[in-house]
Design brief:
Elements (H helix, E strand, L loop, with lengths): L1 E5 L13 E5 L3 H11 L3 H5 L10 E5 L2 E2 L15 E6 L7
Length: 93
C-alpha cells in the first residue's frame, strides 16, 4: 500500500533532496524498512540499535504522534501521509 512520507530537511540528502517520497507498508515499522530499501541510511537515523524509534525522532500519522498509539506497530492506511519530525533542542540557559 503506497504511503507518502514527508522528509525533514536534515534527512533529505538521503532522498536526493526530495521533500516527499512514496513507500509501501502497512505499519510504521514496514514503512521504515521500505525507506531503508529505497534510501539506505534511513533506519539508523530513525531507530536505535535495538530497532526502536530514537528518542529525538517523532513520527506523526494524521497529526497524531505514534508514541501515543502503537509505536512502530501503528497501522497506516493506504494514501495516508507520514511526517518525520526530528525533535528540536536548545535555547538559552
Amino acid at each position: 500500500m503506497p504511503v507518502t512520507v514527508k522528509v525533514p530537511t536534515p534527512l533529505r540528502r538521503l532522498t536526493a533532496n526530495q521533500r516527499e517520497v512514496t513507500v509501501a507498508g502497512g505499519t510504521v515499522r514496514e514503512i521504515i524498512a521500505d525507506l531503508e530499501r529505497n534510501y539506505p541510511g534511513f533506519r539508523e537515523r530513525l531507530c536505535d540499535e535495538t530497532g526502536e524509534l530514537r528518542q529525538f525522532i517523532n513520527i506523526y500519522i494524521a497529526g497524531e504522534d505514534i508514541r501515543f498509539r502503537e509505536g512502530l506497530a501503528t497501522q497506516i492506511k493506504d494514501g495516508q501521509a507520514v511526517s518525520i519530525v526530528p525533535a528540536a533542542a536548545g535555547g538559552q540557559k
